[in-house]
């Protein structure tokens, strides 16, 4: 039993000996629980039916989502935009819905162009990010064969929370099966490289991508940005579609394409997937657009660009350069790996030859990879299909630049206080001046401390990649390939034991009450459980068990709602508010209920009383009733006893006089009088003052009347 003494009760202790307050305080240590936090899931080019209670035009995407976040009634926000072909510009429309079918797993979403549908969620995780949405949802889709963990959760929200709370690996995607309550966590997503990744149809299962990842966690390995050549669509067509039909998340002005790329790489307010560079800045106009979308996010993929028609107003000039993030196949250097590990990792079956130029004279120390400042360099070369990647790691932060000798302006990277950086040398063109002879590509790289001046402390490396271009004979044959063994994981969480608690109007647990006291009858189970409960066959019995009264019948309906109303849900608990009663021959009342379990919330029973229908949470889900009409092993009977006194009983020593009651033997009955409030004391004082004033006024009138009467003169 828990109770706290308010300041009002403490102040009443100083009002004199007439006021006595008995206060019992019990300190209980409760387990710390993570409160649910608000988050959003987003669907791209999908729409769900719902009840729109407010709509407004020309809001930004983030203003629309922020409005729904602040509105308690808002369950989902539908943000759409249309392209004005004469401008061309985007005209937006934001709709707030207080009821959405997106929460119904059987609801079928409708395809809708230029639509972002955002659904409000409650996730129990401390890792919910401060971004507009935490997950991207793709309905009725899964990725086969890339599972890392399989768990069972009663709700989709619990599954998404498990992804955010995962510590063993970086959870990049989630698949939730609504019918079987299977939750699959994976460190791969649609952009993962090194294996064949494809979304396939799976009715009743949704695919989610974690958008709370840091930019460095977006890919398993290195993350880079490339153009649309691999999509099979011309760069001009893709850039034109993106400029019109991608919603711009952020715009800024930059001096070069590399600066726009860097802005996308380090963006933290949302996970930047692509950017559009519009060329050199013109006045105060923005020339860099950042997007959370890429072609993987679109339901139709690259074919979206092919089906796009040119706008009505088209000058025939390229709109700009479009780049998307790509996850490379090359694994990064793991912590604790020996130097040179990256040299052994390659994306192509090529021979790698990294040599030093014997004609260079600036290597004066014994360790050729260290300079006179004490900085040592671990330089590795990765031979790609279109470039040579020079990866540099240092033992202390490096400030300066790395560039191709002779191409310091067109092939360079500025390094600011970093111990790991990379320069990509293009194989074609004159930007990096890479030389090639019969499959051997070479270049010279300079590590320079000063931004302008080259000194003796700088390092120069000659790098070379050799590609084997010779012809080979290959043979194709058939061999049996067995599918990977399927691992079956069965989870059966134990049903927690329920308990009955009877609380007074101050939410204190009581054991002794008076007839007519308003009480809260509660059947509780722990909050952190996937189960729900329903109660039926509840009986109130006299302590001697000679008299009983059924308050809830076998269907879960109250037999007499005027005495004991039906149950309502309060979280995982059931509660009913009633007035205390007792039996004629006994003060002790024992309550006994039959409790069953549901997986998730239970379906209420439809009851009737005096020609009116109402619901009572006393029946399990309909499918459970149809599947098993007999009493199952999950039945559990619980009971609770309470002492109900008549008015004035606390003044009688009936416990000693009545040998049939054994409360005096094993219970200590404490009658706690409610402390008078300041309001009641003030009302009593005002009443007494008015009565005294009335008494004085009566006396005054009496004597005045007597004084005013003329005295008789006796002759």
CATH homologous superfamily caption of the largest domain: Hepatocyte Growth Factor
CATH class of the largest domain: Alpha Beta
Q: In terms of per-residue confidence, which ranges show pLDDT below 50 for 5 or more consecutive residues?
A: 1-32, 331-366, 469-492, 619-633, 651-673
Number of domains: 4
Pfam family, one: PAN_4
Protein name: Trynity
InterPro entries: Celegans_DevNeuronal_Protein, CUT_N, Pan_app, ZP_dom
Keywords: Membrane, Transmembrane, Transmembrane helix
How would you concisely characterize the structure shown here?
This is Trynity. By secondary structure, the protein is mostly beta strands. Helix content is about 15%, strand content about 35%.
Model description:
Residues 382-614 form the ZP domain. This is Trynity. Keywords: Membrane, Transmembrane, Transmembrane helix. With 715 residues, the protein is mainly beta. It has 4 domains: 37-213, Hepatocyte Growth Factor; 217-306 and 318-327, Hepatocyte Growth Factor (3-Layer(bba) Sandwich); 377-470 and 483-491, Immunoglobulin-like, CATH 2.60.40; 499-620 and 636-645, Sandwich (Immunoglobulin-like), CATH 2.60.40. Helix content is 13%, strand content 35%. The strands form 7 sheets. It has a 10-stranded mixed beta sheet. Strands 18, 19, 20, 21, 22, 23 and 24 form a 7-stranded antiparallel beta sheet that branches. The longest helix has 31 residues, at 678-708. The protein is elongated and about 135 Å long. The termini are far apart. Residues 1-32, 331-366, 469-492, 619-633 and 651-673 have low confidence and may be disordered.
